[in-house]
Amino acid sequence: MATLIVYMTTHGCTEKAVRLLMNHLGDDINLVNLEGVADPDLSRYDRVIIGGSIHMGEIQKGLRQYCERNLPVLLKKKVGIFLCCMFEGDVAKRQFEGAWPPELREHATATGLFGGEIRFDKMNVLEKMIVKKVAKIDKDVSKLNQLAVREFAQELSG
User: What is the pTM of this model?
Assistant: First the structure.
């Protein structure tokens, strides 16, 4: 099954999750980081996986716009959507719901919350200050959930 994984990453966590996901999906997978790239042609893909991350409470604007522009085509494909975020439970669920169009969430074969990472070496000075003040975190933290990635892949492949 031809699979396209489109994503955006701010500090690398989503890209790391995508690489983990690829290990569970088999062959014939193309990756497209939408940062600075035109929309890929969806016609040759049976399955499309879309992933992004939350920063300052929002998913990447370019990813949200991609979903809105391509919604009619995506609704005709087997779709999986995932989100990387540091929150868990109800907060993570609300962030997930706010990140994706309702029609896409309802249509998706698989949905996933993969956890997140804080990487100070990838942040600018302002981001570091905000994380230290708001989240009270002053060192790198990884909550990337490899089990959630594997379960997402199984759900999508089933």
Answer: 0.89
- How far apart are the two ends of the chain, measured CA to CA in Å? 12
User: Tokens at residue 143, please?
Assistant: 């909550």
Query: Model confidence over 92-130: pLDDT tens digits?
Result: 999 999 999 999 999 999 999 999 877 878 878 887 777
In angstroms, what CA-CA distances link 81 with 48, 74, 158?
Answer: 9, 11, 15
Q: Which residue shows structure tokens 């690829």?
A: 22
Report the run of H or E that residue 30 belongs to, with start and end: strand 29-33
What CATH number has the domain bearing residue 70? Answer: 3.40.50.360
Largest CA distance in the chain: 46
Residues spanned by the domain of 54: 3-157
- Give the separation between CA 28 and CA 47, rounded to whole angstroms: 11
Number of folded domains that form the chain: 1
CA Rg value for the chain: 15
Q: What is the DSSP pairing of strand 29-33 with strand 3-7?
A: parallel
